[in-house]
Write a structure and sequence with these properties.
By secondary structure, this protein is an alpha+beta fold. The protein has 2 domains: 39 residues; 359 residues, Cytochrome p450 (Orthogonal Bundle). 48% of the residues lie in helices and 9% in strands. The chain is built from 18 helices and 11 strands. The strands form 4 sheets. A 4-stranded mixed beta sheet has the order 1-2-7-4. Helix 7 packs antiparallel against helix 8, helix 7 runs parallel beside helix 17 and helix 9 runs antiparallel to helix 12.
Length: 460
């Protein structure tokens, strides 16, 4: 004997079974009609390596050399010299490996590719406001870019900081000479040049030597090595809140941001203290970058843009970090060299690969600086086979600032010293192993043996 509930459930099921034929009769014409409608053709994706369920192409990248080399190797093996398609977990990705494809992405369709992907690293700091490097393309980004190019990093501003560069270059030469006279051993050139760059940048920002300079250098060094945007499981499986919440990358980036924020706040305080000690009639407000930013904050950057403290910190950090990261997010369907680029895809421009392509460079892996005397190529974003600072709308705004610092440092070291490799090491034996962090860098420091050079006009 069935209970009342069981009887009702049985009756309900019988009613559904009785109505099912009627439902099929009603839907059959619709199904037949839809069947006759031609399905849209599948997208013509770029070629790429074979993929596995769930993880996509990740098995081609894990436990391999630095990712830029691995992607170059995959592009060659799978006949994708210009554009290659990868599936990084849930994220579709397109790798650009040729000059022509890079021109399409960075110039022809630059507005489609003008935004950067939102990685876990960015989410860790998004509450502060994203800086110029990672802000989505739009009103806010244009204001930040204008502040950097017109106020902070213009040619006139770079010229005004010449005295700072010259003093720090003299300190660099003195430090190398002191280390040479005291120890007589190979000098760690990597550490010396990094200190010169940091001191030049911090003095340009604060107006004097930063009190917590050593701590700042240490934090920046750790951050440049350990933070790898877009490489965590949370970035590759963004729909998984569990992976995002427990990602070590997210926690690491948050800690780095906390420390760097504290140090930038300290720099702002030091600048304010210095300004308070200067006579009121001494117009030093715009002699350093911090003074410029604080003036813009007081006066306002525009009717629809507010430079709050979080944004102020990101603007200051622009001068300390590389903003030419060539990762883009596609907004809208796009076609590159005949291939469909899916909306929302991560687009990676492999500038390393193009800078070593034998189609553009003779003996591409050899150190031949004289090659630039024979070809009309520069690094200002016009020649897409050589874009160390990026190109297009997202090109690094600090080219003039970086060039002025590095040219002076290199000229000073070459003018005052002759350089040799340590005893027993030939040029072919130099360890050039790379390390992938925010940027690609040497994994191990460079040691060289300097000899004080007496200029010919001094001995004449």
């Amino acid at each position: 004997m069935l209970s009342d509930d069981e009887a009702a459930y049985t009756s309900y099921c019988c009613l559904l079974l009785a109505l099912l034929p009627l439902l099929l009769i009603f839907l059959r014409p619709q199904l037949h009609k839809n069947h006759n409608v031609a399905a849209p053709p599948p997208p013509r994706l770029p070629p790429g390596p074979w993929r596995l369920p769930l993880i996509g192409s990740l098995h081609h990248l894990v436990m391999k050399p630095p990712v830029h080399r691995t992607m170059d190797d995959l592009a060659r093996r799978y006949d994708a010299p210009d554009v290659m398609y990868l599936q990084l977990g849930e994220v579709p990705a397109v790798v650009i490996s040729s000059r022509d494809a890079a021109r399409e992405v960075l110039k022809t369709h630059d507005t489609v590719f003008a935004s950067r992907p939102m990685s876990l690293s960015m989410r860790a700091t998004a509450h502060e406001g994203l800086g110029i490097a990672f802000s989505p393309y739009g009103h806010r980004w244009r204001h930040l870019r204008k502040i950097c190019t017109v106020e902070l990093l213009s040619a006139a501003r770079v010229r005004s900081l010449r005295a700072v560069r010259e003093e720090e270059a003299a300190r660099l030469v003195a430090a190398v000479a002191e280390e040479l006279s005291r120890h007589g051993e190979p000098v760690n050139v990597s550490v010396r040049v990094a200190a010169f760059v940091a001191d030049s940048v911090l003095r340009a920002i604060v107006g004097e030597r930063f009190r917590r300079r050593d701590e700042f250098l240490e934090v920046l060094e750790v951050g440049l090595k350990s933070i790898k945007p877009g490489t965590s499981l949370g970035d590759m499986f963004p729909s998984s809140r569990l992976l995002c919440a427990f990602s070590s990358t997210f926690q690491k980036d948050r800690e780095f941001h906390r420390k760097i924020t504290e140090l930038v706040n300290c720099a702002i305080e030091q600048h304010e203290e210095r300004k308070a000690t200067v006579a009121a009639d001494d117009n030093t407000g715009d002699k350093d970058l911090m003074g410029v930013v604080l003036r813009i904050q007081r006066e306002g950057a525009g009717p629809d843009f507010h430079l709050d403290n979080g944004t102020l910190r990101t603007v200051v950090l622009t001068a300390c970090t590389n903003t030419s990261i060539d990762a883009k997010r596609v907004h809208g369907t796009c076609y590159i060299l005949g291939f469909d680029i899916p909306q929302g895809a991560l687009v990676l421009v492999n500038a390393w690969c193009m800078g070593r392509d034998p189609k553009y460079w003779d003996q591409a892996e050899e150190f031949k600086p004289e090659r630039f005397e024979e070809v009309n190529v520069d690094f200002k974003g016009t020649y897409f086979e050589y874009i160390p600072f990026g190109a297009g709308r997202r090109m690094c705004p600090a080219i003039a600032f970086a060039e002025a610092n590095m040219v002076l440092a290199l000229a000073s070291l070459l003018y005052h010293f002759d350089w040799q490799l340590p005893s027993g090491i030939s040029p072919s034996e130099i360890d050039m192993e790379e390390y992938m962090g925010i940027t690609v860098r040497r994994k191990r420091d460079l040691y060289l043996c300097p000899t004080v050079r007496v200029p010919p006009h001094v001995t004449a």
